[in-house]
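User: Can you predict the 3D structure for this chain?
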Amino acid sequence: MALKKISEGAEADIYELELLGIKAVMKYRRPKPYLVKEIEESLRSTRTRTEARILSKASSLISAPKPLLVTKYAIIMEKLGGMQASKKSGFGRPSAEASGKAMAALHSSGIIHGDFTTANILVSGSTISVIDFGLSYYSSSVEDMAFDVLLFKRSVNEGDFNAFEGAYRNGFSKAGEVLKKLADIEKRGRYQNRSLETA
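Assistant: Here is the predicted structure, written as structure tokens:
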């Protein structure tokens, strides 16, 4: 099983490989030598198991990598096609609407992605796939969901966010509450920034 490293993140490396003839990627969580060994190993294995469980659920709801094999510190998952939206010259209304539908499906099932930005959205024609669930977790908190939306909002222009918002509202019964909380969070941020500027 030949491995080819294609990406290196803050806590994990991504490799390309074939598993039983299937194009796949492996996410391997690297050891962190500056942590106590027992704590470090527990964190890596817990995060790997959590991500694998959420991926399994998410891939049944939206286009997301389906886990094929899970070890203590690694997840081998199907490789999805497409280009990272952050590397494209523009995102566009169809992709924004598809992203709104995807987030609505995740939030309806209590999944918080944790890093829902254009860097973690693959675009292939008129379809999108969501990747990198390394920071994901389960929560019913409206505020957690609002922060998920905020991360996406900060990664796109106003027109694309409006398209996203319309699809999100249509797909998630609590979208109104989440977007209201988002407005509150943004107001707090503006107030804090003004306070710092006048201090």
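The chain has five helices and ten strands. Strands lie at 4-8, 12-19, 22-29, 67-70, 74-78, 83-84, 111-112, 121-124, 127-130, 137-138.
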